[in-house]
Design a protein that fits this description.
38 strands
Length: 994
């Protein structure tokens, strides 16, 4: 019997919708007999239809054979095909799985018999690239791209009309409550069944209040990770294709986005806040109304509930459907993530993300009280305790001490404060662990008070006691609920249900007591005392600052980071780039940790500028002491510049005994080149390719890194001559053949001399930093230095990155090569973040500079700079940080090498000590750089609490140059997070192709 041409599905009249049972051989027979295609059929799995990929003889995919569920009528199939054609025409940038057609334009469609009844079969366009399904973590760019596609499909279908859209589908959110009611019995676990039913009831009630204002239209209704197709070879995965129009119907337009969002929630490491890029992207293409923004998350919850109930039912009635059974665990994870926060929190978070107005407004500001909360306590008697990243009391790593809050409060009380209060909404640095893969709850939704004398807690206004028990009172305060929490020994003097007047006593507290004060919307959920920064916007919208109850000024002062970035771009030249597209705001550092204003601690893996660690107390004290005394230029006579230059020269071999002090590595290299040219009278310089030396005219001239200047090789001045990068991993000569780099560089130097242009200098890093910490081939510098000297030139060593013990076994990089340069340029580590650089050479070379005039740097060698330089050298020695580079660096390298054995994307682990590089490749044979994968990995590592960045001409190497004080615990955390991120991003295991 043929399907009724005009019949459409009504889910509630069907007992079940099992997938048509078709074996591979049967699909191949349908393809041959009905469509004239001889092909091998590969089952693709489906919830309710039968899908097969047809491969022709040479293995190439020919088409998708789709056999619809027999419950679907012909008019529904026609609507699906028409919708696909419409989107393909309206959005040509998208690939759409349209029905294949005969030369006359008619669809390649037929009816076939199945054991479940006659069904419509048709051929659809195959879209290569694969879906986004599976556990792989979805990066922000991928999430945003999904939102963009959903917005484009929604706008394309806005005016689409077709009789085949008149359907009652179990996936239509308009019927979600009925679907859950019908299918919840298939959820065997009572606790899970109750959770699904409860969440459905709450979400459905919320949506129903808005339903009349929600626009309806034609919707795809299944733009999930299973049905969005990746652009072939896109890295990271980026969708540009849409398949499976089987759920096309008419429904609430915002449901299109809700369905897509829900499908993201099962992916590794994805939680609700990770979905905001999709919401913003959709909103940019197809703006949400305030009502739609308000309904969005309840619809996500409803979709999740329907998935759980439907999945259990489908697995029960269709026992052979492996696809449905495999989805059960991920469907439950979707539900868990969709319901992990109270609905009102997500509503406010989405309002903020979309900029939509409250519907209706639910949050009020705290009113000025009739009576202060604490009787006879004036605002001036209260000391505010700043526990934020910017708080001075957080210095010297105090935030890491679990008892810091109580200690600081006790100290303030001992100094005479009548009370000590914390600040509402200011993220507390004291609540963050030093190392954590996820952010912790740091943002307070109330205020903590410590009392230095006896006090009476009184009602700030007339109200009703909602709850009273030992250690706790809750009462109404206008439209809000005021919560007071004490120690359990405090007995309130009011009872539950009582009415209180302004000034009426609530509880008596003794000196030394503490109380937590919180205000929330009376109809909202109780807020935790601390919430995670990602969700703080949602929680804080449901609370209010209790400060006015104490006579203090309210104000959360939560500066929008995007506003600050915009101000930066407006005033700070944008060529001075910042890490990350959406960077955390870093306002504090301590040792190998960087602290954001959201009180998130990040492990710093990139900061070779601070070898001692951030905010080293010894440096801070030395600088502060010197600034209190004198800071001027080095033409004045003072001791520190003498002592520092003596110490610095003493660290270098003979004849390097004379020091110039400058402010940066760029200046040091520039001066080093001027010294060499002045001493030799020769202006030609030989430099390594793929190197970076600085931004001044001379240092930039010899910089050939394509990432720092894509036109570097083409724009070099005529006096700069480059030789091959001696990269033994990916250069022209690899492995044992790397010994050829030295003789080839020597030949270039000899040819310059033969052409009457002998080089005045050869400059190069002594350990190849820009390439990710690749050691130069053994004997390379000995050969090159000898050649340049043979023709009267000088050897200039750039030690800006590698010097000062970072390599562990050697204090200077040139020691690893067994050579002594003529000129050494150093900076970065010298000042531990203070601008300080130096050039060290022989007295003979230094004296030749007088032929070019005099040298002077206003702040190079100033008293403060000299004291900083001395302090850094003292601390490097006293804390054995060079030895730490050996110990921790060796441990870290072993951990990274173990990861390389497990992940094919890791091509090599370069470097030594704490100057390491992890090179990522797509193929270990071709060494194709994994540039986009490296960028995605860095973004994921940031989310996991690690700051690491790419380097190299292809930006495919993780530069691993942490402060030298990093310990084994932190090194292991970095390796563990790298392991986790690589797994979450789907890089798999093994030695083959990445």
């Amino acid at each position: 019997m043929l399907p009724d041409e005009y019949r459409t599905i009504d889910f509630f009249t069907e007992d079940a919708l099992p997938v048509p049972r078709l074996a591979q051989a049967e699909a191949e027979l349908i393809a041959a007999e009905h469509f004239g295609i001889t092909a091998r059929a590969q089952s693709l799995g489906s919830q309710q239809d039968a899908n097969f990929l047809l491969h022709i003889d040479d293995g190439r995919p020919a088409a998708i054979l789709k056999v619809a569920n027999p419950a679907f009528g012909t008019v529904e199939i026609e609507a699906q095909d028409a919708a696909a054609d419409l989107i393909a025409a309206a959005r040509p940038e998208l690939r759409i799985a349209t029905v294949l057609r005969h030369p006359d334009g008619s669809p390649r469609r037929t009816t076939v018999d199945t054991e479940n009844g006659p069904a419509v079969a048709r051929l659809l366009r195959y879209l290569p690239g694969g879906t986004l399904s599976g556990p792989r973590h979805l990066s922000p760019g991928t999430v945003a791209a999904m939102g963009t596609i959903v917005g484009k499909v929604s706008t394309a279908l806005r005016d689409f009309r077709h009789p085949g859209l008149d359907r009652v589908l179990q996936w239509d959110p308009q019927h979600a409550d009925r679907v859950v009611t019908k299918l919840a019995g298939h959820i065997d676990e009572p606790d899970r069944r109750t959770a699904v039913q409860t969440a459905t009831a709450e979400a459905w009630a919320h949506v129903q209040r808005l339903a009349a204002a929600l626009p309806s239209q034609a919707v795809h209704l299944d733009l999930t990770d299973d049905n969005l197709i990746r652009r072939p070879d896109a890295r990271p995965p980026m969708p540009d294709g849409v398949i499976d129009f089987g759920d096309v119907t008419t429904s609430w337009a915002v449901g299109e986005l809700a369905v897509s969002l829900s499908s993201m929630l099962h992916h590794d490491g994805v939680e609700p806040h990770h979905l905001l890029p999709a919401v913003r992207a959709f909103h940019d293409v197809r703006p949400l109304s305030p009502e739609e923004a308000e309904a969005l998350w309840p619809l996500v919850v409803l979709r999740a509930a329907v998935l759980v109930a439907s999945g259990r039912q489908q697995a029960a009635v269709d026992e052979d459907n492996a696809y449905a059974k495999a989805a059960l665990d991920r469907e439950w994870r979707i539900f868990e993530q969709a319901t992990c926060l109270p609905l009102p929190v997500m509503l406010h978070l989405l309002r903020d993300a979309t900029g939509t107005a409250d519907v209706p407004s639910r949050t009020a500001q705290a009113d000025t009280p009739v009576r202060p909360l604490l009787r006879d306590l004036a605002p001036g008697d209260i000391t505010l305790l700043d526990l934020s990243t910017d708080g001075d009391r957080m210095d010297d790593g105090a935030w890491m001490d679990a008892g810091t809050e109580a200690r600081l409060a006790a100290s303030a009380l001992a100094d005479g404060a009548a009370a000590v209060a914390t600040r509402y909404a200011h993220a507390r640095l004291t609540r963050t662990p030093a190392l954590s893969a996820v952010s912790t709850a740091t943002v307070p939704t109330g205020i903590d008070l410590w009392l230095g004398r006896d006090a009476v807690v009184q009602a700030p206004a007339a109200g009703r006691v909602l709850a009273a028990a030992p250690g706790r009172v809750e009462l109404t305060y206008g439209a809000q609920a005021l919560s007071l929490s004490f120690t359990p020994s405090v007995e309130p003097v009011v009872t539950t249900g009582a009415t209180v007047q302004a000034g009426e006593g609530i509880a008596h507290l003794g000196s030394g007591a503490s109380v937590h004060v919180a205000l929330r919307a009376a109809d909202g959920p109780a807020a935790p005392r601390l919430v995670r920064p990602e969700y703080a916007t949602g929680w804080l919208a449901l609370t209010a600052d209790p400060a006015p109850l104490l006579g203090l000024l309210a104000g959360s002062d939560r500066t929008r980071e995007r506003d600050l970035l915009d101000r930066r771009d407006a005033a700070f030249a944008t060529v001075q780039e910042h890490y990350y597209a959406n960077p955390p705001r870093i306002e504090r550092g301590w040792r190998h940790h960087l602290l954001s204003t959201e009180a998130r601690s990040y492990l710093d893996i990139v900061n070779n500028v601070t070898p001692l660690g951030h905010a080293h107390p010894r440096v801070e004290k030395a600088v502060s002491r010197q600034l209190r005394r004198l800071n001027t230029n080095s033409r004045f006579h003072y001791a520190s510049v003498v002592e520092f230059t003596e110490r610095l020269a003493g660290l270098l071999p003979h004849p390097l005994d004379t020091v110039f002090l400058v402010n940066s590595g760029s200046e040091a290299v520039d001066l080093g080149l001027r010294l060499a040219i002045g001493a030799t009278g020769r202006h030609d310089v030989v430099a390594l390719r793929e190197a970076y030396h600085g931004w001044t005219y001379a240092s930039d001239a010899v910089s050939t890194s394509l990432q720092d200047n894509p036109n570097a090789l083409a724009t070099r001045p005529s006096w700069v001559h480059t030789v091959d990068s001696p990269n033994s991993y990916r250069g022209r000569h690899r492995g044992a053949d790397a010994v050829r780099y030295g003789p080839e560089a020597v030949a270039v130097i000899d040819e310059l001399a033969a052409s009457d242009r002998p080089a005045g200098a050869f400059i190069g890093e002594t350990f190849y930093g820009n390439a990710g910490g690749v050691a130069l081939p053994d004997g390379y510098l000995a050969q090159v230095y000898a050649a340049v000297r043979r023709h009267g030139g000088l050897a200039v060593a750039d030690e800006v990155q590698v010097g000062y013990g970072r390599l562990g076994h050697w204090f200077w990089g040139f020691e690893q090569q067994g050579v002594v340069p003529d000129i050494v340029c150093v900076a970065k580590a010298m000042g531990n973040g203070h601008p300080l650089g130096a050039v060290i050479t022989s007295k003979e070379v230094a004296d030749r500079y007088r032929d070019q005039g005099y040298f002077f740097s206003s702040t190079g060698g100033s008293p403060v700079s000299s004291v900083v330089g001395l302090t850094v050298l003292d601390t490097l020695r006293d804390e054995d940080l060079q030895g730490n580079a050996v110990r921790v660096g060796g441990r870290l390298k072993r951990r990274l090498e173990a990861l390389a054995d497990r992940y094919g994307i890791i091509g090599a682990v370069h470097g030594t000590g704490l100057y390491l590089g992890l090179e990522l490749v797509r193929d270990r044979t071709t060494l194709e750089p994994a540039t986009e994968e490296t960028a995605e990995l860095c973004d994921r590592m940031l989310d996991l609490g690690v700051i690491v960045q790419p380097t190299g001409d292809h930006l495919n190497i993780l530069k691993i140059k942490p402060p030298l004080c990093i310990d084994s615990t932190a090194a292991d955390f970095f390796a563990d997070m790298l392991d986790l991120a690589l797994a979450q991003l789907g890089h798999g295991h093994g030695h083959g192709h990445a």
